[in-house]
């Protein structure tokens, strides 16, 4: 009689020692990233082609601060789009309320920064609650159109210099005489960078806590099947209003930090193009994920700023006209990158790691069979 030994059982990947060590280290990676970003201004490393100067130069720190701000804005917008399934075309209105509200209260009313920031965030949150209470009476495309209409009203009021407060099409420079000394001047750009990092940390913390709470699970249920939430006896309107109001308040807080970084308010932040940019950031990074919108927002703003400088460089001007003309348009390059990313990575940047892991696992050579796997005639 011939007895054949059964092959050795393969240990699943999630139970292997390497994967177990990775899962033990993985929760600490956000803290490590936060520490690295916090000490980045102390670095004097120069990265030619990536930044125009050393990492700790004022220009580079300002660029990084703006990228962090929009990473937080994208994460807050994802609370609506990726986690609740609400497509809003008017999210820029609450960011603009934070920018113009802070600028007007400091420049026109002469309030100190902390009072202006507190009143602005409170006002932006109330505005989001009021407009959300009206817009959420509709669903689908109608909801998107109502939010777009509200945003267009805000853009018109800013462009028409309503009450002589906004400065019209010329914008409103920020009066820095009433600001703390640590936030004024090129030498204090590092403090603004840390302020932007604090804002991003706050948004990620709030969104993560909400997503992991019972309210977050209801929001995820609304995204998947709103009727089922209603059948369970829960009020979908109330939960969507909470998400809408919270996202608007976080956007207003981002506007407070943004106006300090750029030193004023300009009408372009009230346009619907900004909301469309936030939508692109979320889709590019991965909607409904923890870090995807942040990565998408940072990458989008970095490319937007760097491609503008690249399009006016001598390297592009010396190319043939068939290449120099499209490459000199940052939106053309960004659109091409977005199309390629959506085509090859439908789940966003966060889907890149799983795809690469599957690819490397498929290309990994299999180990030869152990001698024990051979037949053992007895």
Tell me what the structure shows.
With about 375 residues, the chain is mainly alpha-helical. Helices cover about 65% and strands about 0% of the residues. The protein contains 17 helices and 4 strands. The protein has a two-stranded antiparallel ribbon. It has a two-stranded antiparallel ribbon with strand order 2-3. The chain is globular and about 60 Å long. The N and C termini lie close together (about 5 Å).
Mean pLDDT: 85
Strand fraction = under 5%
Low-confidence sequence ranges: 3-7, 9-18, 370-378
Count the helices. How many? 17
What summary fits the major beta sheet? 2 strands, antiparallel
Helix content: 55-70%
Please provide the ordered H/E string of secondary-structure elements.
EHHHHHHHEHHHHEHHHHHHE
Number of separate strands: 4
Overall shape: it is: globular
Based on CA atoms alone, the radius of gyration comes out at 25 Å
Order of strands across the biggest sheet?
1-4
Distance between the termini: 7 Å
SS-derived structural category: mainly alpha
Short recap of the structure:
The chain has 378 residues and is mainly α. It has helices at 17-25, 29-39, 58-78, 81-84, 92-107, 113-135, 140-159, 189-212, 214-224, 226-231, 236-262, 272-285, 292-311, 314-317, 321-327, 330-344, 352-363; strands at 2-3, 172-173, 264-265, 376-377. The protein has a domain at 55-270.
